[in-house]
Amino acid sequence: MKVLVVGQGGREHALVWKLKQSRLVTKVYCAPGNAGTGLDVENIDISAVDAERLVKFAKNEGIALTVIGPEAPLVAGVADAFMKAGLRVFGPTKAAAQLEGSKKFAKEVMRAAQVPTAEFRSFTDPDSAIQFVQEREEIGLVVKADGLAAGKGVTVCSTKAQAIEAIRDAMVKRVFGTAGDTVVIEERMSGPELSVLALVDGRTIVPLESAQDHKAAYDDDQGPNTGGMGAYSPAPIANQELMDEVIDKILIPTVHELRRQGIEYRGVLYAGLMLTSQGPRVLEFNTRLGDPETQPVLMRLKSDLFEVLCAAADGKLRDFQNLDWDPRPSVCVVMASEGYPGNYPKGKPIRGLDRASQLADTKVFHAGTAKHGPNIVTDGGRVLGVTALGDDISDAKRRAYEAVKCIRWEGAWCRKDISDKARAAQLEE
C-alpha cells in the first residue's frame, strides 16, 4: 500500500522513516519533504497547505493513508478535504485543530471540561490587556499570541514590564502577524515540563511513550524559547501513576468536552504539561506529534506504525491498546543554524552526514535541509535532529553526541545538555 506524509520537518522525516518499515507499505511519498526525506522516500513538490493538489495526488496514486504532520495544514482544514473526498487520513479536523490553532479556544475547552490549567484572561484590545497587567500584583505571567506562531508566540514574564512589552509586541508591533489579534494572559506556573502524546480515534485513547522536550535555546534552560532544541524518551518523571492521572483528568475530559461540542477528535492529542506542586497542569495542547519529541519516540516504537495509524483513522484503536516499545531510551539532539531562533542564514553546505549515518542505533533526521546540486545544505533554523538509542540514558546521549561531532557546517551549534534532566531525575530516585 502507498502512504503520503504531509510536511517537511524532522517530525515528517521520522514518520516516513518509520512508515517505510511496515511490511504492508510498498511506497511512501512526502509532500513537500526535505533533503533527508528525499534520501529515504520520494518527495512530491506540493505545499503542505495545498489541499486541492494533495487530494488530487492521493486519488491519482491510490494512496491508502495520508498522515498530516504539521499544525498549519490541520488548522487550515486539509484533513477535512481528504475526508470529504472519501480518503483515509490521519489528523484532526479543522474544528478539532482549534485546540492548537487558538489558545483561547483551548483554554475555554479546558475550563468547561474542568481540566487543570493556569487561570487566564483573553484580550482583543492591547490597552485592556495592559491595564489588566498593571492592576495585578507583581507576579510572573505568561503572554501568549492566540494563533499559530511557529512555537515563538509564548513569552514567559517575570515582571509587569516584561508582560506589557510582550503584549505590545504581539498586538501593536504585530511581531506574530494575525496570531496576535488576540492574546491570552495566564499566571506563570513552575515545575518540570513533560510531553504526553496519545493517539485518539474519537473514543479510544492510546498513550505513546513519554518524552521531554528542551524549549530554551541554551544549556541549563537559558535563553529564548525555540521550537525545541532536543528531546529524550522515556521521561523518568512520567511514572504509571502520573500517566494514569493525565489520561483520566486531562485527555479523557478534553476529548469528551469536544464531543459534547459536536467535534470528534481523531489524530494525535499532545498535552504539554507542567508538573506543579498541585499536580500536572496543562501548558498547551498540540493537535499533532511534537517536533523533536517524535524522533526519539518513534526510534523506540516496535509496533507497525502504518497499522496503528490506519486503526486510528478508522476508529479501531481498541485493537491496539498495547503498543510494543524498545525498552532502551533514546535521545535527540537538534543541530541549529547560527542566529536561531532569530534570523539565520541558509544554504550552508553540510558535511559528515554519511559518516554519522554509519553509526549503530543512530539516525539523523533532517528538519531544515535542501538539496543544491550534489550538496545537502541548511534551509531552516533547526536543521537536523540527531537521534540515538542507548543501553541507558547516558549511553543514548553519548551516542547522539558522537554523531553530532561527525557533522559540520558554518555556524552549526547545539545544546550540550540534552537528557541531563533524565539523568538527574534517576539519581534522585
UniProtKB/TrEMBL annotation:
GO terms for biological process: 'de novo' IMP biosynthetic process; purine nucleobase biosynthetic process. InterPro entries: ATP-grasp, ATP_grasp_subdomain_1, PreATP-grasp_dom_sf, PRibGlycinamid_synth_ATP-grasp, PRibGlycinamide_synth, PRibGlycinamide_synth_C-dom, PRibGlycinamide_synth_C_sf, PRibGlycinamide_synth_CS. The lineage of its organism: Bacteria, Pseudomonadati, Planctomycetota, Planctomycetia, Planctomycetales. It catalyses: 5-phospho-beta-D-ribosylamine + glycine + ATP = N(1)-(5-phospho-beta-D-ribosyl)glycinamide + ADP + phosphate + H(+). This is Phosphoribosylamine--glycine ligase. It comes from the Bacteria. Its EC number is 6.3.4.13. Pathway: Purine metabolism; IMP biosynthesis via de novo pathway; N(1)-(5-phospho-D-ribosyl)glycinamide from 5-phospho-alpha-D-ribose 1-diphosphate: step 2/2. It comes from Caulifigura coniformis. It is an enzyme of class 6 (ligase). HAMAP family: GARS. Its cofactor is Mg(2+); Mn(2+). Keywords: ATP-binding, Ligase, Manganese, Metal-binding, Nucleotide-binding, Purine biosynthesis. GO terms for molecular function: ATP binding; metal ion binding; phosphoribosylamine-glycine ligase activity. Belongs to the GARS family. Residues 107-314 form the ATP-grasp domain.
